[in-house]
Amino acid sequence: ATARVIEELPASADAAWACLADFCDMSAWSPDSNVVRSEGTGLGAVRVVDGADGRYVERCEAYDPVARSFRYSLVESPHNYDRYLGEVTLTPLGDDRCRIEWSNDFEIGGVPIERVAKACEAMYRDYFISNLRKTLEGRVAAD
After folding, report:
1. How far, rounded to the nearest angstrom, does the alpha carbon of residue 132 sit from its chain's CA centroid?
2. Which parts of the chain register pLDDT below 70?
3. Which of 4, 24, 106, 135 could connect to 28 by a Cys-Cys bridge, CB 3.0–4.6 Å?
4. Using CA atoms, how far apart are residues 7 and 114, in angstroms rounded to an integer?
């Protein structure tokens, strides 16, 4: 199954990438996340995050700063995923805006796939991308 959200951001792709480029720093787009441990940078980096519902371990599976994109797998989570591969890609739309696509492919047992896809899309759109947008708008206002 897949979940996908595509939104426009009020900043250049380079400015948005600056907020995402460090796989282990989630502060610009998930300020409530508690990264308790991280190992490495870029491809192969691992972040361990304590969330409200438990611990998540994510590994960076692909990292392309030129394309402004990365993929990550969910190695451990409090949910029953058999497989989870997320991807974030930024596409330039001009000097002061870009498009973000946040998606995943997953398999999960014991839960209706449609419900999980909707929950992932809501998390991407209403939390991750919304917080990234606020961070970018704050940086533009500060300039």
Report:
1. 10
2. 140-143
3. 135
4. 21
pLDDT of residue 142: 67
pLDDT in tens, 33-59: 889 999 999 999 999 999 888 999 999
**Residue count (the chain):** 143
Predicted pLDDT of residue 114 = 95
Judge whether 123 and 3 are in contact, CB under 8 Å.
no
Which tokens is 111 given?
A: 């839960």
C-alpha to C-alpha distance for 66 and 57, rounded to whole angstroms: 26
- CA-atom Rg of the chain in angstroms: 15
Judged by phi (left if over 0) then psi (alpha if -120 to 50, else beta), residue 101 lies in beta
Q: Which two tokens mark 75?
A: 């190695």
